[in-house]
Task: structure prediction
Amino acid sequence: MSTNSLSSDLEPVSVFREDYISAKSFKSSDRNAVLSGRYELAVFAVSWDRRCMSLSKGTAWKAKRAVLIRPPNIDKEGYCRKHEMELVAMLKERCQTIEIIDGVELGFDGIWERLYLIGAEEAMKAPSPGAFLLDLSAMSRFYSAGLVAMIIRLGIAARTDCFYAEGRYDATIDVKEVLFSHGKWERKVVPFLDGKSNPSLGWYYLVSAGFDSEWITKILFQEEPDRVGLLMPIPGVFPNYEHKFLNGIKSITSEFMIPEEYHQKAHAADAVAAWKTLSTSGQERWEEEQVAYLCCGTKPHAVAMALRALVHRFPAVLYFLPERYKVIPVEEAGIFWRYTIIDHSSFALRKS
Result:
């Protein structure tokens, strides 16, 4: 299908297709086994999270063009600057060109405007026989879901490979410390996933939930949905993960009277399993209510929501941008994932 060749030794962990989109997830302790070959475009995000350099340490992949997102909020500790210098040095060995999108100068919305222009530039080249690569490991859920949606909606490439490195936190840390945001938040609709509205209908909010239950509770009180469901990251990615999560989520389930049948579960790091869970459960009532997906959980779950929304077009995918972020030490856990997403409607696929 493309100039990109992936290792055939790995068996998929999850496989799913709905309508014109299909996907497979792969998992390994060897990043080179998960990802190899050549890409037309690769997108990365700088972060205080050391996982932002996980994929660049791989030696089995290359890209014609790399785009590096510098976040608007650079940490005072200097981790972002340090990681960026190391990341750029490694990318120079594997990519023909590198562009840095300066979020400090452009701001959150300005980053997306530049990403959209890059997408439009690539769309002008379509149909492209090559695949695109997104490193979700330290990328905002807003950009993770938005980039997947943009590539498919614009028909830029037939295949998108998403890489994700599982994170490792201090196992003794209190659940309330695993919060990545402070202050107020701003409601954002993920680009290309604005859904369809009908003011005469009520709202169903499906929340991809994480550890920050207090934050989610405040959002739901503000939004006032008529019905609430949960996508839960179970099983988790480190010891005691599920216990910490379930203890934290109790306040939401009781406050909004969410019944057990509205508790959907999927592996925290498996985007394809989460997408399959959302689709097979079919909890949305398309004709009776408006639907919104809230990206408050893991990045893979945000991608799952994007895929579900792309197929059905009704749901709006929402992200709540925090006023500021909290620096929490995160290392890679040594487990790596690839989600290979195929757009079967793509002209590029038919021409390959």
